[in-house]
């Protein structure tokens, strides 16, 4: 990696370390108990995902499970981002002046570090198929965050841990059931980064290109295009839409599995669901603005939209039909199909709405 590409990553890591609190204060024995509980319940959750989904891959998982603190999660997130976007960013930085590299590197590093510091206190778990050194991916369980939320909700430790693990283990199963999915997403993200970097170079070279981009942005604003996508070229927007469909499905599918359990598996599940929902609904105005800034509101929408899609397909056609998504890339739902499940059913299942 060139020095120009290393600078933002180093700044991001330093800023995130400085701004991220270590987590709830607990005795060493309590911390060990939290970690032990997650390790013991992880295979229990995987077995439950296998039962609910019927996916054979859920019984032969080869990806890793790691219980980590906030700093380790941040380091993994930075390593994964560099793996996915490093080549495009390095190309975009070639030829820039030392002053531009220094100012731009520090600026982008501070911003991404601040965002990471917020996410590091909120992410409960994450399956990362792109973690360097883990060819089949790694499930990261952020122990201090799981314990912080459990304590805030005052719910049973075993039940809450298993409930969270059901969602996270489902992501692990998804990539095992669709071994082609990692390479597919990796390629699409690389195309997205190349398109974004290419557009930035075009805008910086030619005033006419900038004027065309501004007009495109004005037109997009009238059409309701999200602010974060206004200056993306059409090719990048198309990839973003495709990835939104994929991520919405993955999150919605995990929520479907999470909500499929009853008191026989998680005795206090109704209490956990109610308090978890109330917690999200009672966020302050400042917190909502902050979450909108870092993109968490869009993530929450993906959970909702994806779950509605999965529930509709499961209800109307069964789990076997839903599992066909994992057969090949062509079966992934588009963003439009997420909002209109009958379109996916017609295309993939050959079923038309009555």
Report on the structure:
Residues 193-220 form a coiled coil. Keywords: Coiled coil. This is Coenzyme F420 biosynthesis associated uncharacterized protein. Helix 1 packs parallel to helix 4 (98-119) and helix 3 (70-93) crosses helix 7 (181-205). The chain is mainly alpha-helical. It has one domain (3-348). Helix content is 70%, strand content 4%. Mean pLDDT is 80; it is low at 1-7 and 95-107.
Short key terms for the protein model shown above:
3 strands, CHP03883_F420-assoc, Coenzyme F420 biosynthesis associated uncharacterized protein, mainly alpha, 354 residues, 70% helix, Zinicin_2_N, 15 helices
User: How would the global form be characterised?
Assistant: globular
Number of contiguous helices? 15
The number of domains: 1
SS elements, strand count = 3
Based on CA atoms alone, the radius of gyration comes out at: 21 Å
The low-pLDDT segments are 1-7, 95-107
Write the element-wise H/E pattern from the N-terminal end onward.
Answer: HHEHHEEHHHHHHHHHHH
What percentage of the residues does DSSP assign to strands (E)? under 5%
> What is the helical fraction, as a range of percent?
over 70%
Q: Could you tell me how far the N terminus lies from the C terminus, measured between alpha carbons in angstroms?
A: 56 Å
The overall average pLDDT, rounded, is 80
Largest sheet report = 3 strands, mixed
* Content-based structural category: mainly alpha
Main sheet: strand order: 1-3-2
Coiled coil: 193-220
Pfam families: Zincin_2
Keywords: Coiled coil
Protein name: Coenzyme F420 biosynthesis associated uncharacterized protein
